[in-house]
Amino acid sequence: MDRILWTQILDVGPPNRFQHAMAYDSDRDRVVLFSGRVLVMGPQGFPIEQRPQDTWEFDGSTWMQVEDIGPPGRAEAGVCYDSNRKRTVLFGGANDSGLLNDTWEWDGELWTQVAESGPPAGAGYGITYDAQRGNVLHFSFANKEHPQGTTWTWDGVEWTQVNDVGAHGGFGVMAYDPSAQQVLMCTDSSGDPAPQPGPPTFTWNGSSWKQISDIGPHINTTAANMCFDGKELILYLPTMVQTWTWHESGWVQRQDMGPSKRLGTAMVGDLTRQRCVLFGQEQLLNQMPETWVLRRI
To answer: DSSP E strands: which ranges in 141-241?
Structure first.
């Protein structure tokens, strides 16, 4: 195995934020960041929270703001890059108006709303591009009607519900593994009785979820990030400062140091450089933005 190391590379860039949307555009070699929750000083001298409509891109060394209008600002939106259609797809989230279920696409120059409805409105989704089947795969988390969540696909024209039975407790983080040509979803084990066996891990076969492992860390998926870095799947737990990688049938811990403990981060795989890019954290006012990379040494 390669050695891996977390390194902070920047303390400048977008205003620090948390619960933002972030995806990697592999065709233009850009990390795309949209909105999130930002603390600013209000007119009465007290911090207030904003959800800006700003869009930023990171080229591997520098952040640049590329748009200041677009979808209504939001937190906890689902986002991924559709490499077939060359679009960053954004779905749902939450703002002061409530829970959202609109769909937008970013082509590198302009945001366009492409659907007004689809999966249930909400925030904190599992979403990824399933390259094997050529569609965006969306796992809508648990609600009263569907305690294990529901699964949907987006083909660029419409959302289609493909399964009304989800996986485990209905909460999870997911990513596509090109080396195995499969989607993996790691679900929440925080509600399981002790001792927890680890996160139930599932694969998607196009119509249903299949559990393939319960080996690995005990996690709360509201504080977990997962992506493919160009070589392997990476699971990062920012509240525990633990980095795990997926190997055949289970998760293997690789690192127990890195960025300080935090919440609200976003992490994507930079496929060109075979590394992960992590940005943001739940914050104090005027906290400096931090960009970290997990690279091979």
So the answer is: 150-154, 159-163, 172-177, 182-187, 201-204, 209-213, 225-228, 233-237
CA–CA gap between residue 155 and residue 151 (Å, rounded): 14
Instruction: Kindly report each contact of residues 145-150 with a partner whose C-beta sits within 8 Å and lies 24 or more positions away, as own/partner.
Output: 146/170, 150/119, 150/120
Residues 35, 74 contacting (CB under 8 angstroms): yes
Class for the domain spanning 4-296: mainly beta
Summarised one tens digit per residue, pLDDT across range 95-148 is 999 999 999 999 999 999 999 999 988 887 789 999 999 999 999 877 777 777
Name the residue ranges covered by the structural domains of the chain.
Answer: 4-296
Check residue 53 and report its DSSP letter: -
Classify residue 197 as left (phi > 0), alpha (psi -120 to 50) or beta: alpha
Of 243, 236, 240, 245, give the one whose Cα is nearest residue 279: 236
∠ CA 48-141-254, nearest 5°, is 85
Query: Distances from the Cα of 30 to the Cαs of 10, 50, 135, 271, 272, in angstroms?
Result: 16, 25, 21, 10, 10
Residue-wise pLDDT for 190-205, tens only, equals: 666 655 667 789 999 9
Q: Which two tokens stand for residue 18?
A: 């948390």
C-beta of residue 293 within 8 angstroms of C-beta of residue 6: yes
Please tell me the pTM assigned to this model.
0.94
Specify the DSSP element, H or E, that contains 89: strand 87-95
Q: What is the DSSP letter of 289?
A: P
Which amino acid is present at 19? Q
Comparing CA positions, the residue from 237, 184, 179, 234 lying closest to residue 209 is 184
